[in-house]
Structures are given as structure tokens and as C-alpha cells.
Design a protein that fits this description.
It contains 10 helices and 15 strands. It is α/β, with parallel strands linked by helices. The structure holds nicotinamide-adenine-dinucleotide (NAD). Nicotinamide-adenine-dinucleotide binds next to helix 1.
């Protein structure tokens, strides 16, 4: 008997949709049935590239006409909630790219729509599938750190303001580096810590460079500084209900020695760093650093796409449920709200 295939459609056919399509196309239990994008040329060329059945410029028409089993939402952040909710209401399971939404209010509506329609909602967090992350998560879960007290998280670019898409538009993205790249480092750290409940946030955001013309030679020059309304640098601190704290720094542009993409956790019995991966503990009266002899060169993005299909088709557990996306979103919201108010805020 022929294997059941998951019929997947796409909303948004830009950069990251190409990665979703590439991985899903190679899976024998998946069929790419349709894709939509407001830019006809983008969706048509993606459909040709990946042999996708039908191209649409209106995702609502696509959902109605194709009735996909699952939808991958790869639009700018401002459309994550309406597109995901429309797909869930049309009876499809959803994988939505990070961040979950523009804010937690929208994110909650997405979770409610999934529950109401009894469909699965997965957040496209891939860093938790990285073997460096699972190496540390395993040690935390086995109790090697004791109680995790503190995490220091970095997603810092010295000069890396995206010069494509709408990443400088607060109205379409919800924010800048904190919501765009801070979210990656935050999601993996929070996952390693056991996904504790955030209860308070404080933070500051600064815009000093992205909204001005710059002649500095960099990897991605000539971003659209005239429409740039997001922060260049954001810093924040989160308190959790178990007493742990987390400090996060994220930048598109910061005057630092070099880019930094890492987390360090400190516990009562041990600590760990993500890159290079290492565990720090006391053994036989000596302070010992442990590094893995070998880690698989994990394809975290491929693992996230495979896990989504396994979760939907075979009911296997997901490491990235929508609820985790919502907790991360509440932390991001809290940092932005605190920065606007100039004081610590409560996370509900
Ligand atoms: N997981 C990751 O590593 C990763 C990496 C990059 C981007 N992302 C996320 O993916 C999302 C998209 O980012 P991108 O880099 O692909 O941006 P992009 O600008 O390349 O693509 C977005 C696409 O959405 C389309 N679009 C806009 N409105 C639409 C609508 N109403 N219906 C259908 N399509 C519409 C745009 O025309 C564009 O083609 C963002 O939320 C971003 O945060 C995730």
C-alpha cells in the first residue's frame, strides 16, 4: 500500500521558505501541493524550482482551493498570526517561522485557534535541534548542573543590518535584532534551562546607526535606512518563577570586537557553554572542563522540518510546541515593554 503523504502548502515564498521547501521536497512522505506569495514572480519561480503543484498570490484562495494537510508560514512577522490562524481554521496543521508573532496577544490567539480546531501548531525554532544544544540539555536534565541559576545569552552582530526584506520595519516585524536574532539564542537557552516560566523583564533598546546613511564597508551594505524604525542594540534581563535569571544581548550593529552567538549557563553544581561546547564542574576536588570528543555535525534545520512531519503524520512528540513559542514571545514583549517604560515589568 502506498505510504500516506503529507500535503504541504506554503504562505510566503521568500528566503526561508526556500529552505523549508528544499528539506520537505526530499521527504518521501511529503507532497508539496501549493505555495503563495503576494509577489507573483517569487512564488512562480519557487514552484518551478521545487516542482510545487500550484502557485497563488492570495493565500486565502490557496487554502480554500487546495485544502492542504499542513501549512508552512514563512511571511514577515506581522503576518504570522493572521496566516497561521487562517490555515488552522482551514483545518491544516501549521509550522510557523520564528518569532511566533508580533507579540504574545497575537501568539495566544494562534494557540487558541490550534486548540479550537484540534490542529498542531509548531514554532520553527531550529537551534534546539543542534547537537551542541542537546549535549548541554542532556547534562542539565541528568542533574549535572544542579539548579541552573543564571544564563548569559548573546546574539550580537558588529555590523549586520539586513539589506533585504522588511527587517528594519517595526510595524511589520515587531522589532529589530531582539525579536529577529535574539529569539534564536533565547529559544535554545530557555529550552536547555527546562522552559521555566518567565515572570518579569527589564531591558533597554538603542537606535543610533541603522536609521542613518552609512559608508562603512560591511557584509550587507545599503540597507534601507529611511524606513529603519527598529533598535540596533537591545539588552534585557528575565526573571523566572524558579528564581533563575537570564541576561540577553542582541544587536544588528554594535561596537564590539566581533560577532557573538552563544550562551553560558551557571548552576549550583556545574555550568556550560554552547560554542565551543563545554561543561564546567568540580570532580575529585579539581575544577574540570569537559568537551565532547565528537558531536554529529547536526543539520538542525533539517531536523526541525523532519520533526514537524513526524509530529503531524505519526504523532511523534515535538521539541518546539507553539506554547514554547509563546513563552519566548512573552520574554521579548517584556524586554520591549520595559525599555519603553524605563522600568521592570511583570510577565503574565
Ligand atoms: N529560522 C530561521 O533561521 C529564519 C531565517 C530567516 C528568516 N526567518 C523568519 O522567516 C520569516 C520570513 O523571512 P525571510 O527571510 O524569508 O523574508 P523574505 O522577505 O525573504 O520573505 C518573506 C516573503 O513573504 C512574502 N509575503 C509578504 N506578504 C505576504 C502575504 N500576504 N502572503 C504571502 N506571502 C507574503 C514576501 O513577498 C516575501 O517573499 C520571518 O518571520 C523571519 O523571522 C527564520
Amino acid at each position: 500500500m502506498a505510504k500516506k503523504k503529507l500535503r504541504v502548502a506554503f504562505i510566503g515564498a521568500g528566503g526561508i521558505a526556500g529552505a523549508h521547501m528544499r528539506y520537505l521536497k526530499d521527504m518521501e512522505d511529503v507532497e508539496l501541493v501549493a505555495a503563495s506569495d503576494v509577489v507573483a514572480q517569487s512564488v512562480e519561480s519557487r514552484c518551478e524550482e521545487f516542482g510545487i503543484g500550484e502557485a497563488f498570490t492570495d493565500y486565502k484562495k490557496m487554502l480554500k482551493s487546495v485544502k492542504p494537510d499542513a501549512v508552512s508560514v514563512c511571511t514577515p512577522n506581522g503576518l504570522h498570526a493572521p496566516c497561521s490562524i487562517a490555515a488552522l481554521n482551514a483545518g491544516a496543521h501549521v509550522i510557523v517561522e520564528k518569532p511566533l508573532a508580533m507579540n504574545a496577544r497575537e501568539g495566544q490567539k494562534m494557540l487558541d485557534a490550534a486548540k479550537k480546531n484540534r490542529r498542531k501548531l509548531v514554532i520553527g525554532f531550529q537551534y534546539r535541534y543542534d547537537s551542541k544544544t542537546t549535549f548541554i540539555k542532556n547534562a542539565v536534565d541528568k542533574g549535572q548542573m544542579g539548579k541552573v541559576l543564571y544564563a548569559r545569552v548573546h546574539a550580537l552582530r558588529r555590523r549586520g543590518i539586513p539589506n533585504w526584506g522588511v527587517f528594519g520595519r517595526k510595524d511589520l516585524q515587531g522589532g529589530g535584532p531582539m525579536i529577529d536574532i535574539g529569539v534564536h539564542a533565547l529559544e535554545m537557552t530557555h529550552f536547555v534551562m527546562g522552559s521555566p516560566k518567565p515572570v518579569a523583564a527589564s531591558g533597554s533598546t538603542y537606535t543610533y546607526l541603522g536609521d542613518k546613511k552609512s559608508d562603512v564597508v560591511s557584509q550587507w551594505p545599503n540597507w534601507d535606512y529611511k524606513t529603519y524604525t527598529v533598535e540596533d542594540l537591545a539588552v534585557g534581563m528575565i526573571r523566572f518563577d524558579n528564581g533563575a535569571t537570564l541576561h540577553l544581548e542582541a544587536s544588528f550593529a554594535a561596537h564590539i570586537e566581533k560577532n557573538a552567538w552563544n550562551f553560558t549557563i551557571m548552576g549550583e553544581k556545574g555550568g556550560a557553554s554552547w560554542d565551543p561546547p563545554g561543561l564546567f564542574s568540580d570532580e575529585n576536588n579539581y575544577m574540570v572542563n569537559t568537551e565532547p570528543n565528537w558531536l554529529p555535525n547536526s543539520d538542525a534545520f533539517g531536523a526541525k522540518m523532519r520533526n514537524f512531519v513526524d509530529h503531524v503524520l505519526y504523532n511523534r512528540p515535538t521539541m518546539a510546541p507553539g506554547a514554547h513559542g509563546l513563552m519566548v514571545q512573552k520574554m521579548l514583549d517584556g524586554i520591549y515593554e520595559s525599555a519603553a517604560k524605563g522600568k521592570e515589568v511583570t510577565i503574565k
